[in-house]
Amino acid sequence: MIPPLQQLIERLKALPGIGQKSAERVAFYLLNASQAEVEQLADAVHRIKSDVHRCRRCFNFATDDLCPLCRNPKRDQDVLCVVAQPWEILKIEKTGEFHGLYHVLGGLVSPMDDVSASDLTIDALVGRVQAESVQEVILALEPRLEGDLTGMQIAGRLGPLGVKVTQIAQGVPVGRDLEFADEATLGRALRGRTPVS
User: Fold this and answer.
1) CB-based contact 164:133 (threshold 8 Å)
2) Which residues contact residue 55 at a Cβ distance below 8 angstroms, ignoring those fewer than 6 apart?
3) Which of 8, 116, 143, 147 is the most exposed place for a label (fewest CB within 10 A)?
């Protein structure tokens, strides 16, 4: 195989969910695509790195200082839903059940991976709760050890502030990522959220 094609296949295989056969299919598709199509794809990939950054308020992806959700005055300003990663916001939004704001932690506490609470945006979350008079914080974290550890850290920090801390109900399968939960299950989990002790 010629080196440029092999290099492209190797780069594609590095993407999540793409194995050898999928990488080859995409590479051969691109070889047969028009120059304009390939340039549009290259431009889109370039722009995702040059134009997208984190929202200064919630740490979601944004192209401006604030993401569209934080800029929306119709969102319920009294309720924050805490997620580990920005793509989990999309899943929750698809349920149509949540109308508040979000806070993205940037991961979960994981001693095995050497990720502590100080590596996440928990300090910023506490600051938001104090500054924005938030009434309820909903934890929409993975139903596994790392999610539980992170939730306990957050509840411990927010408890003294008198804010209500709840978590989504366990309608999401244990050990599964929110990314793979269907909208109906995630919607039921949001409606059935419970207090965190």
Assistant:
1) no
2) 61, 62, 65, 66, 67, 70
3) 116
CB 170 within 8 A of CB 147: no
pLDDT in tens, 113-134: 999 999 999 999 999 999 998 9
**Domains of the chain, CATH where assigned:** 3-50 (1.10.8.420), 59-195 (3.40.1360.10)
Is the separation of the CB atoms in 134 and 79 below 8 Å?
A: yes
Dist CA 175 CA 197 (whole Å): 22
The percentage of residues in the chain with a pLDDT greater than 70, rounded to a whole number, is 92
Q: What's the Cα-to-Cα distance from 53 to each of 77, 109, 156, rounded to whole Å?
A: 23, 23, 30
C-alpha distance across the termini of the chain, in Å: 59
87 contacts 124 by C-beta, under 8 angstroms? no
CA geometry: angle 90, 38, 29, nearest 5 deg: 90
